[in-house]
Here is the input.
Amino acid sequence: MRRIRWGWVAVAAVPAVFIGYFFVYPVVRILGLGLSELNIGASGLEARLVRVGWFTLWQATISTFLTLLAAAPLTWAVSTYEFRGRRLATALVTVPFVLPTVVVGTAFVSLGFGDSIWAILAAHVFFNTAVVVRTVSTLWARIDPQLEEAARVLGATGWSVFRRITLPLLKPSIAAAASIVFLFTFTSFGVVLILGGFEYATLEVEIYRQAVTLFDLPLAAALAIVQLVGVTGALYAYSRYQERKTVTWTLDRASNRPISTGRERLAVALSVTVTIGALSIPLVALVARSLSGSFYGALFETDPVIGRPISAVGNSLLFAVAAMSIATVVGLMAASVITARRGSLSRWFDLTLMLPLGTSAVTIGFGFIVALGWPIDLRASVWLIPIAHALVAIPFVVRSTVPTLRSIPDETREAAAVLGASPSRVWRHIDMPIVSRAALVGAAFAFVVSLGEFGATSFVARPNTPTIPTMIFRLLGRPGETSFGMAMALAVVLAGLTAGIVMWIDRVQFGEIGRF
Amino acid sequence: MRRNRSTTAALVTLFLVAGACTTGSTGDVPESITLLAHDSFAGSVSDSTFAAFTAKTGIAVEVIAAGDAGSMVNQAILTKDNPLADVMFGVDDAFLSRALAEDIFLVHKSKGVNRVPQDLVDRENRVTPIDFGDVCINYDKGWFETTKLEIPQSLTDLRANLYASHFTVEHPATSSPGLAFMLATIDEFGEDGWLDYWADLRAGGVNVVSDWDSAYYGDFVRYGGQSSMVVSYATSPPAEVLFAKEPTDTAPTGVIEAGCYRQVEYAGVLDGTAYPEAAGLLVDFMLSVDFQETIPLTWFVFPANQDAELPQEFIDYAIVPENPARFSAKYISDNRDKWINEWIEVMEG
Here is the structure.
């Protein structure tokens, strides 16, 4: 019965080729290289591996759970109510997300945190709260208030309305956010190294040690496969859950209501101030350090050795725009395919797109240099930077748009098709207007992922186009108060830039989105 | 613009490969050659770094940053059939054997290598020493003045809890100074005694962190941390003077001259380059007095060429310890993994 729809094949081909050439192929090449020499049992480190694997799993699970809890009050406040400072709060919450780990690490240490499992968990919550707040609130704000009102009219109290109406509708997006947080914390590297003391090691840390320091490529490859299997398992469970829990429902336009009662005001004020306040503590330490000398002015001066630090801002912005464009286009194409074609092929496609987020930076970085030398030598190309950023950013676009796209009832699309609309026209007029808001959230994440340089990008750096994080590392690479102060100042610039740009992206509106 | 350039570059590369296969035209003068270096070198390369080289030879120098030294050596080995660059710089003794065992360098006897202390030189001329630096414990002068404690004079002094609990070291598996300091303790206490030393440090509350940045800027008392001593470099005090907030003529930190380890960094021509002659010229340039004299204030290490004059800041504030530890590349590579695993057993077990 099924006939091949060439239009869909074309749409699917772009993300498939992208992920295939820039992720699957390099990873297969490097793992193949490592495994060809593997001599199982020779290394005698099995006990250690079990310990490391177990730690990786449980800390990621607990970190994800804690992040969901910590993000809940703020998510509720910004999704339900309209109040002054709402946009600012949702923008500020993204700032920790981009800050280099070493900068946050020194701030945590100066605040007396450090060298404990609690510091690791706190830092994971600190970095990832934005993922939950922003992913979930996109959907939450658009739940039709009539649904909740109807339940209230039927006698339900506030809590049971939330439990029986709101929460079930939100489950897909909560799961989407949780999956990203889980992948991030499962592959945690800097946080564990810097704040965990030396007692804790994730698989990611162990892969780095084995591959880079101990030169045991076979063992590193074996570890990378253990990591990939773990990540794949988690993602598979997630996608099954996602399919079971998804209900199609009518999205309203974002309808935040004004705060009406004193109790509401108090609850909102507490949610916002406590969350933002807690997230700001390390940021305040950072700002204070950056102001202890005339460091901002110094950012504009040309240092004979490391150049003009502020020039890194331009490089970062260019890369971020490029990465965001690639990720948004490829991610949206992928999301459309994933929602339109159900079944196991689509599920595995979705899962593969998510994998770069859960793959060690060493694996991807080394994969690039063994695989991308031929036919065109991309290894030293400046394009590899936005491509590497986009690999990590695509999951954000996919995860923020798929729940929204899934919620569109098939009947709506079918009705349009019956009325003679072509698939592309259906997409333009039905899907696009509804998904644009979610796509923007994804795009904003893609932008900040690139600004913050995650994972593999440190393996493909070009010294003559330093980004802000690269410049911060350069400053922190030499002793001296000025070096340190300028690094802190540049980190504050990065934070400000992030908040500003996210606020600006959030303000973009796509025409009038009507009700269906 | 960029797209054109990289496509052109790709085509050029294809032609070059074809050319190299058919005519073996190794004598050509290229427009540019590529230098693979670790981040801390590459991050301090400016337009002027290789300007004199380009003016003399007409060859531009492109630099690729490859992470830390370990990551760089790995990348060079993984790509030895299709090298990323013509020259690699920044491999030190800790990783040298690994690179030599994989045969990734072409033999090149550099002009000027006779002006380098002979104990730094590779007798087979596969790599050329460019600079050296000493990893030493740094201390905060203010802290020792306030507490009126004696500054430790030996590694043994640090066994006392009083000192160990105010001491931060980097992890040898993730940090190059961390590995160097571990080697210094092996040199000092021998293969039989060094693990006991670390057990004492651990019992005394020594702080271990992943990398130099976190140690120096996170845990050093000077930057708000708890440790009055950190493993850093003998050249950190001049940097503290040069990058001080207010102009100063005394360094706020000092160097404990016992328990230092000497790191030597080498450059080598990568096998597989289409331009071995030009690559050799670049290595020679890096050992020339002109370039060598820019090394101290750019990368905060000492020039290998004895004819290079040191800047005043180095004469005034840098310390050259008398008998730093140094192991042969082979001895390190034969034992490094075993030592690191033993260290981990003692410190993490």
